[in-house]
Inverse folding.
């Protein structure tokens, strides 16, 4: 479900769709149905799995670390250094680099 998520720019609506889908997969893997009336926190606790959004954020930061350590001539670094897109005042588009910066700020504030 999260294959290639390192490159995603996840918006709030994407996280809202991933959350129930992740629980549906956990319930299916554990053989638990909605008729059992078990809370999602209990199901996640049994598997000891972090929320899907957190796993995507970890993967994105891990991949960013790989990219930063590469040479500047590496094609991905060349693309990341281009700042050609102007952000509008009304609703700035979510870019991958903006998402990584926001993840860094959240990670640092929790430490």
């Amino acid at each position: 479900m999260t294959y290639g998520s390192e490159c995603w720019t996840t918006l709030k609506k994407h996280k809202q769709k991933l959350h129930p889908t992740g629980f549906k997969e956990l319930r299916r893997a554990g053989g638990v149905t909605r008729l059992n009336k078990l809370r999602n926190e209990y199901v996640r606790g049994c598997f000891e799995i972090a929320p899907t959004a957190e796993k995507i954020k970890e993967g994105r930061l891990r991949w960013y670390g790989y990219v930063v350590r590469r040479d500047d001539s590496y094609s991905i670094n060349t693309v990341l250094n281009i700042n050609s897109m102007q952000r509008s005042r009304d609703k700035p588009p979510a870019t991958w680099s903006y998402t990584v910066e926001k993840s860094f700020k959240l990670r640092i504030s929790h430490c």
Remarks:
- The chain has five helices and no strands.
- The mean pLDDT is 76.
- The first helix runs from residue 12 to 30.
- The helical segments are 12-30, 40-47, 52-69, 75-80, 96-110.
